[in-house]
Amino acid sequence: MRFLCLHGKGMNAEVLRSQMARICEFFTPDHEFTFVNGPVPREPMAGIALKTRQSDERYFGFTPDDPALCGQIIDSVSNFMASAKPFDGIIGFSEGACVAATIMIADEQLPQPVFRLKCGIFFCGLSPIDIQSCSDGKGEPRFLNYDEDGVMLRVPTAHIWSTEGGEFANMGKDLVTISDEGLKEESIHRLGHEIPGSRSDEGLEEAIRAIERTIERAK
Question: What is the pTM (predicted TM-score) of this model?
Fold first, then answer.
């Protein structure tokens, strides 16, 4: 299976590749990962700059300074996907998970879906936005939620998130609620706003199981 991988705010493709290195070790060789940079230049997220090998390394995000431009950012990622070899699923961390889920939901709502993604894997995922709320380029984007929108993701999904992490604690919990109950896997850890395996093996085995079950459902 081929996966598009989207990093979090103030990170870049190589940072996410490093964060996911241990998890990717468990995938069979027939799985392929494409890591891409977000289109918006950003200051590095706290702690990220200390790990980099190059002083001139650049960092990005997927959220524009002007919220009214969110639709354009989603379009830019969608255009990349349309120009590339078809992807089977999307992996996203934090802000990248928001973009991933937004694209998946918007595609499912089309009369003739373009991408037909089979699954989504989300780490500490920020809730997706209602693409219609920013389609006119004027208003603030509205985040989807279960109370107003119900179940929106109807493909296999894996949700790996943390109850710790200060302001980022529980990020991913709301995304779980709008995912189909019979098609979702959930792994909750206490590592904070990070991916299991990126700093320690805590939570890694459970996260791998959730991902494996999701991929098996998607086949």
Answer: 0.91
